[in-house]
Design goal:
274 residues, mainly alpha, 2 domains, 80% helix
Length: 274
C-alpha cells in the first residue's frame, strides 16, 4: 500500500510537470521530453499498478477546466510515442491509455457539472425574477380589489356632490331671478350687497365641492394659476362689498338709492266746469 501511495504521488507530480507548459500540438514537446515522461510512466505502471481514480478525480477538481485539454494532449502524445517506440511494453501503454481515459472522463464530468451549475444559477435567477413579478402582480391585484371595493362609495359620494352643486347653482339662479324681478322695489345698496354675498357663497361652495370631487377620484388639484384666480375673485368681491358699505356710510347711500328708485311721473288734470 505504501508503494502504491508513492507511485500515486509520483504520478501526480508528473501531471504537475506536464501542466507547467501548455501542450496543444506535437510541436510543443520534444522527443527527448516524450522519452523522459514515458520512462517516468514506466516506473509507475510496472508490476500491474493501477492508479486510484478517486485521488485522480480529487486532483483534477482542484484545477481549472482550461488545463484539462493541455493535460489530455500531453498524455496522448506520450501514449502515441510509447506505442510507436516501445510497442512491446503493453502493460505500461495500457496504464497510460487508462490514465488518458480517466482524464477525459473527468473533463466531461466537470463540463457537465459546470453546465448543471449554470442551469441551476439561471433557474434560481428565473425563480427570483418570477417571485418578484408574482409579488408585484399580487400587489397590483390588491390595489385593484381595493379600488373596486371603494368604487360604489366613491360613485355615491360623487353623485351626491354633483347633486349639491346642481342644487346650489339652481338655488343661486332662482334667488337671482327673484331679486331681479323685484329690482325696482329694492334699494340699490341692498341689491349690490346681496349680489356680492350671493356670488361669494355660490362661487366658494362650488369650488369646495368640485375640489372634493377631485380628491375622491385621486386627481391632483390644478396649479398656482387656478389658486391665484380664485383668490383674486374673492378679493374682488370683498373689495366691491367694502367699497359699497363705505360709500353708503359716507353719505352716498342716497345716490345709490336714487338709482333703484322708480321715476316719478306727474299728470295734470283738467277740470271742466259745468
Amino acid at each position: 500500500m505504501d508503494n502504491d501511495q508513492k507511485k500515486m504521488d509520483d504520478l501526480l507530480r508528473i501531471l504537475d510537470e506536464l501542466l507547467e507548459y501548455p501542450i496543444e500540438t506535437s510541436d510543443d514537446i520534444t522527443d527527448a521530453e516524450l522519452e523522459h515522461y514515458y520512462n517516468e510512466f514506466c516506473s509507475i505502471y510496472c508490476h500491474h499498478f493501477r492508479h486510484w481514480y478517486s485521488l485522480l478525480s480529487g486532483y483534477l477538481e482542484e484545477k481549472t477546466p482550461d488545463v484539462y485539454s493541455y493535460l489530455s494532449n500531453g498524455i496522448r502524445l506520450i501514449s502515441d510515442y510509447g506505442k510507436t517506440h516501445h510497442s512491446q511494453k503493453d502493460e505500461v501503454n495500457a496504464g497510460i491509455d487508462k490514465l488518458l481515459d480517466h482524464v477525459d472522463l473527468e473533463s466531461i464530468r466537470n463540463d457537465r457539472m459546470q453546465a448543471v451549475q449554470c442551469i441551476t444559477t439561471e433557474t434560481r435567477n428565473l425563480y427570483a425574477k418570477t417571485a418578484q413579478q408574482t409579488k408585484e402582480a399580487q400587489e397590483k391585484a390588491s390595489e385593484v380589489k381595493k379600488s373596486v371595493e371603494h368604487f360604489h362609495e366613491q360613485s355615491i359620494s360623487i353623485l351626491g356632490i354633483f347633486s349639491a352643486v346642481v342644487l346650489a347653482f339652481m338655488g343661486g339662479i332662482s334667488f337671482s331671478s327673484s331679486v331681479l324681478e323685484n329690482f325696482a322695489a329694492v334699494s340699490m345698496f341692498r341689491l349690490i350687497i346681496t349680489i356680492v354675498l350671493l356670488g361669494f357663497v355660490i362661487f366658494n361652495a362650488l369650488f369646495i365641492l368640485l375640489r372634493f370631487v377631485l380628491y375622491i377620484v385621486h386627481i391632483d388639484f390644478p396649479g398656482q394659476k387656478t389658486s391665484f384666480c380664485i383668490k383674486a375673485l374673492n378679493i374682488a368681491l370683498a373689495v366691491i362689498l367694502g367699497i359699497t358699505i363705505l360709500a353708503y356710510s359716507f353719505g352716498a347711500g342716497s345716490i345709490l338709492e336714487s338709482w333703484g328708485a322708480a321715476p316719478i311721473t306727474t299728470s295734470s288734470s283738467t277740470t271742466v266746469s259745468p
